[in-house]
Fold this protein.
Amino acid sequence: MKQLQIKMGNTISKNNIMGSVKKVQSVFGLIILLIIASFVCVKNGKNLFLDWRNIMNVLRAVSENGIIAVGMTMVILLGGIDLSVGSVLGLVGTGSAALMMNNHFGFVPTIIIGLGIGCVYGLFNGVVITKMKMQPFLVTLASMSMARGIARIWSNGAGIPLSYGDGLAPVQFEYLQIRIGGLIPVPAIIFVAVAIIFSIVLNRTKFGRQIYAIGGNERAAFLAGIRVHRIKIFVFMICATLSALSGMIHAAQVSQGGPNDGIGYELNAVAAVCIGGTSLAGGKGTIAGTVIGAVILGLLDNIMGLNGVNSNLQLIVKGLILILAVFLQADKQRD
Amino acid sequence: METLLQMKNISKSFAAVKALNDVNFDLHTGEVHALMGENGAGKSTLMNILSGGISFFDGDIFIEGQRVHIKTPVQAQRLGIAKIHQELQLVPYMTVAENIYMGREKSRFGFVSDTWMNKEAAECLAQLEVNIDPSTLVKDLRVGEQQMVEIAKALNMHSKILIMDEPTSAISKAETGHLFTVINKLKAQGVGIIYITHRMEEVFLISDRLTVMRDGVYVDTVNAKESSEEKIISMMVGRDIKAMSVKNKDVLGKEVMRVENLNFSPKEGSFKRSLKDVSFTIHAGEVVGIAGLMGAGRTELCECVFGVHPKTSTGNFYIENKKVNLRSPGDAINHGISFATEDRKSQGLVLQRSIGENMSLPLLKLFSKLGFMQVQLEKKRWVEKIRQLNIKTPSSKTLAGALSGGNQQKVILGRWLLTNPKLLILDEPTRGIDVGAKSEIYKLIDQLAEQGMAILVVSSEMPELIALSDRVIVLCEGRITGGFLREDITQEKLLMAATRMEGNK
């Protein structure tokens, strides 16, 4: 996994010197963290960190945030932001649980409707932002609140527990959280697949070029004939759809659809993106960086958890690390 | 005359590039000292050092014989150094007086005193013989007036050294005349002025001495009276070149585009100017110039033809005699129209992406298969254009932001040539670029026209328009007020038409 990320970083950075400098920096941060983790997590002569099960736990834990962060990267590359991702996760998690438990939907229809909700939600965000010419921050702040409201209405405000079997939720849904061979968690596999797919999309396709161009200079992109609105709407749809995917994984992992789940997830996603070296101003950044950013955040949680650090203290440390990372990556070229 | 400023042995490197190498510069009281050089010669770097924009460099600066340390813009200000920026740096939604006193507001009992500031600002502006009400919002002023406000602000801070970076690039002839009167007044008061411009005729009109820089190195300082345009140009480029192109023209080709009754009324609050009933035709192989003062609607005309304002403009467009709908830049590109905008950085290039990617932008469809970019295919075309246009760059992967102004302009030209257009629209194609690149672009325009491309050129420099165009259309306040064929274009005629006001048509 680690090797895979570094390799991805290399191929992508070839055509972007600035990007590679920054990427090396986040890779560097990741390595330091891994070294620290290997030393400080030793208890009673046993290394709690360097344990397959623990490492897979870290990956499982970062998957939900990682999948969202991939979508968030593309939105931020456009110079936008999507604050509604956490509520969309809650909405789709709740909705899919309700569909399966209350309406006895099968696996495939549930997945399609779940992703469809994300799609439509992103369409709404994108259309309001582009056609009504409003700030992404405000629009998604508003739609964050709306998604939360819909989720609570759908479930009457209470969580919907999932149980599997005849007349209950389809068993396939449980596969979203099992470990293959008792070790590799399915969410992590989905995360890696999503990251690879969208990394290729950004680097090798016309769509990717258009995203970088709009994020770098929207006016120039428009005057070069790029359909800016269409691309923006599409990117918001991808981001919301990935949040929906993450929502269903989340529901499977916690065995319930909780309308209040995913609060604060938008901040985690933005943090992963920024630690990964993507500029909030748009136009600069990579998925590989975001993957590393998400893993760094997950490692921090894990190291502090294994050492029994107070959870409130953990929040403070994470905040400081975010500031440090962004400071280190700030564009210091301009004197 | 005494020495006001001395910059000795100034050197500065950015990463591995030596931007300045052992440069000397001095300025007397009551003198206008022109600083000349191609883009990338190091003029801006030198001035940034003087105005505190760059804090680490080698060398010494002396003001009135005293060695000074300038690390920040505030320190430069305290030492009496003020810079009038190329892009004006006023706050649009504050009044003239508030801008002049920004950071130094006069207050009474803790409240800002508008009455006092307005009165003082009015006096200050009167000194410059400028008729502006200090309580006007800056956004409501013309560019020339805004510039006067900047100068008033500098004087108000008792500046002794005034740096003017391309002060006439955006103002009318009349305003330029006024600016020169003001400059002469300041000279009489003992202010030293460093004057940066690309316009040769101005330099000889206004300056006392000239310093030429090339590739970060000091070349020479001469008295303006004892020098000539040719001498300065050859000092700047290090070789002799012909400043303007000469062209020979034969018969007109077929009609490429016809515009009928184009009307444009910008949205409320927009800075755009309106167009009224504009009609014209352009033929294959023809270079048509668009003349007019700032705000005459020249850029707006280009934009409308390129499909930028589908909702606020009306009119009929015909390409090769077929009526077409131009509802977006994409439509225009598909119909063979290309548009290289006036402002390269804000409207043309994606600075943090490579030269190649910038060139491919309008052609992503052509260069991709099932959505995937065919990098080998596009790379061939990039290399071809880099060679054809003599773009100075290590590779096609270099970031567009790392190039000099002239080379950036060539990247944009390369981009639009790749689309193989029937009609190429160039808005101020040589603004702010150096003499060498300028003459290359003139040559290119001639070549393209010869190959049958129709070219529409907007330029504020009349000699340039006259040299390039087969025909010039003059705009004034959004209307066509004159059209001249090559043989009877003169600067006087163009100016007459450009200043003809509504009603006396």
Residues 228 and 293 of chain A are 28 Å apart (CA to CA). Residues 228-254 of chain A form the longest helix (27 residues). The longest strand of chain A covers residues 42-43.
